[in-house]
Amino acid sequence: MGKRIVIIGGVAAGPKAASRIKRVLPEADVTLIDQDNLISYGGCGIPYYVSGDVSDEQELRSTSFHMVRDANFFNQAKGVRTMTSTRALAIDRRAKTVEVEDLATGARSAIAYDNLMLATGSEPFVLPIPGVDADGVFTISDLHKAIEIKRRIAQGMVGKAVVIGGGAIGVEMAEALTDLWGIETVIVEFMDQLLPKIVDWPMAAALANHLRQHNVEVYLGEAATEIVVEDGKAVGVRTGKRTIDADMVIMAVGVRPRSQLAREAGLNVAANGGIVVNERMQTSDPAIYAAGDCVEIRHLVSGRGLYAPLGSLANKEGRVAADNMAGIPAVFKGGIGSFVMKAFDMAIGATGLSLEMAKAQGFQADSSLTASADRAHFFPGSEIICLELVFDRRTRKVLGFQGIGPMNDSLSVRIDAAAVAITAGATIEDFATIEMAYAPPFSTAIDAINSAAYAAENLCDDRMRQIDIQSFLAWIADPSSHPDWVALDVRHPKQAQPNVDKFGAALWLSLPYDKVRSGYQVLPTDKIMIIVCNAGSRSYESQLALDAAGLRNTVVLPGGYNLIKRIDADILL
């Protein structure tokens, strides 16, 4: 008999590890255990199954050559003994056995191992509020619930839905319910922005605006306090401000590691519940490994623990664990939490730390905001991507990178490039010279990622002064809050005129970019001038010209009109 390897968990990391072991150590006796009867599915694809983009749930469980990854597939095609509908009850580390229970019969048995791997995944948070057990309240925890959600929608049982939680899954589910099915959908988020701690406010605000434009109402800064129930069924959600009718409630308020088995076995578990592992994916017991949504890994920017429940990371971790169990030295150094998602016609993504999180973790952090063309401006179909580059003023290292853009690959390729560079410890200057493949249909000669770095250089070296976007928007909403502020619009007069008419010539000044150097004498010296253009680049050059003329009473609106109009299309014309 070969080496006995037992793997608990059959969704992502577990099947990956089992298959890898049988490839590199064919004589190994590998057992895969899962308490569900549906295994090895793409959980990140659930919103797209609900939306109809993926028509059949079997597609989430199928290989690229259309074989369903069920117990028979792993038994026959992979040579992995697969035990579904089987719950792991306890680990006896001294005897090196796992006690399991057959959920169909109740029979219990012990399975011996030489190496054990925990891939127990995550479980959804459930808010401790009245009504969470009512019919029609769902978490996105497994494929069974996704199937039931889609069944109810397809049978016309859902006309209104409330999604509690504005994280990635919440946003994706709101789109899924609205886009194909036309369900009246509301997102309720406790924090004051969507995707909290993942992206910063400007990107989150643009996402919220985009959702509202596509008939998804978004209520921010509101906590769900109760599920309203009638005759055992959910009929609404109550917050501190309103009651929202609903035929279905999706609770998407985050997940936590499923680590009870590890904790009861005496393994080290982090404060966030993640199983502590080293770079070889070993737990505090050298004979036991762990991978996937149940583990805490190292954040490669902050050096702190990172909980990142992503299928992409789970598969990589599973492979590393498999190699080490098979006797092949391998390491997984950690991650930086890269992600990208779609919301109707918008893509939004991030990698590394947001500005908020970087400051919270003690970095001397700042960020640049830019709005650039995703390909040559003269090429048909060119669109704008808005980017934020987060950096440390002390070391000049790039800490994070995020953005919004059209629903194509223009954002994801920049996020991917940034992820590699940040992982390697890149500085602002490295980003300024990073080489991206160039051709007019795909990119610009000076890529958007380079432009973001140029803006960061100017900020870090104190060559550019800028205004916080939220402060600018607050002033626009109430100019009396800062009577000493005025806007200086350096776009073409025809572009500036609607805002001059709306806000008044005393509040909104127009001086075209090519007239700044010769016509600056008409500008006020007793006001703070907020320089506005489409993207921010003309504003910066205008600021430099005015500085040279002795007028240093200016700040630049970062990202310009291109970013502002994505946050609120009506605030500027």
TrEMBL record:
The record places domain Rhodanese at 481-572
What keywords appear on the UniProt entry? FAD, Flavoprotein, Oxidoreductase, Redox-active center, Transferase
Q: Which SUPFAM superfamilies match?
A: FAD/NAD(P)-binding domain (SSF51905), FAD/NAD-linked reductases, dimerisation (C-terminal) domain (SSF55424), Rhodanese/Cell cycle control phosphatase (SSF52821)
User: Any idea which GO molecular function terms this record carries?
Assistant: oxidoreductase activity; transferase activity
Q: Give the protein's cofactors.
A: FAD
The record's Pfam families line, in alphabetical order, gives: Pyr_redox_2, Pyr_redox_dim
PROSITE patterns in UniProt: RHODANESE_3
Record keywords: Manganese included?
no
* Family per similarity comment: Belongs to the class-III pyridine nucleotide-disulfide oxidoreductase family.
Write down what this protein is called: NADPH-dependent 2,4-dienoyl-CoA reductase/sulfur reductase-like enzyme/rhodanese-related sulfurtransferase
* Biological source species: Desulfoprunum benzoelyticum
